[in-house]
Specification:
160 residues, alpha/beta, Glutaredoxin, 5-stranded mixed sheet, two-stranded antiparallel sheet, 9 strands
């Protein structure tokens, strides 16, 4: 059932305006999706938890490709329900150059139609263009590196 929900969320979100949100990042700064409108594409990646093997691999792959995302006109934001302290430690330990934001009440996850299972958010990556329209979605708990490669290809296709 979870895959069906995720698939319908994926199909229904592409081409739609991404819901705006206001959250706090691991450095204590307020972040809104609208602050990037007209400036850069946004890669918003929902991931289950800080410091798990697969999530660490995904975050570090985004880190390793960060300069290419920036050169291609993309900004990266990682999001899950962990507290800021967890994100701060994860970002510092792994030298992550992008924002990790907190969605403790799941409001952002729900607004994007991202399912959760046993209290953990599913792995779903959205590429949102400069106008705030969702242009690409990658989903699935496995294949964390695929999320990064597909997101980078989508950002490059948008043309900066």
């Amino acid at each position: 059932m979870m895959a069906v929900v995720a698939e319908s969320a994926k199909g229904s979100m592409i081409g739609r305006r991404a819901p705006d949100f206001t959250v706090v990042d691991h450095a204590g700064q307020t972040v809104t999706l609208n602050q990037f409108r007209g400036k850069s594409a946004v890669v918003l990646f929902f991931y289950p938890m800080d410091n798990s093997p697969s999530c660490t691999r995904e975050a570090c792959t985004f880190r390793d490709q960060y300069s290419e995302f920036k050169t291609s006109g993309g900004e990266i934001i990682g999001i899950n329900g962990a507290a800021g302290e967890s994100h701060r430690g994860f970002a510092e330990k792994r030298n992550l150059p992008f924002r990790l934001v907190t969605d403790t009440d799941g409001a952002v996850r729900k607004s994007f139609g991202v399912p959760s299972f046993l209290g953990l958010v599913n792995r779903v990556t959205f590429v949102i263009d400069k106008e705030g329209i969702i242009r690409h979605v990658t989903q699935g708990l496995r294949g964390s590196r695929r999320h990064v490669s597909e997101a980078l290809a989508a950002v490059k296709k948008l043309g900066g």
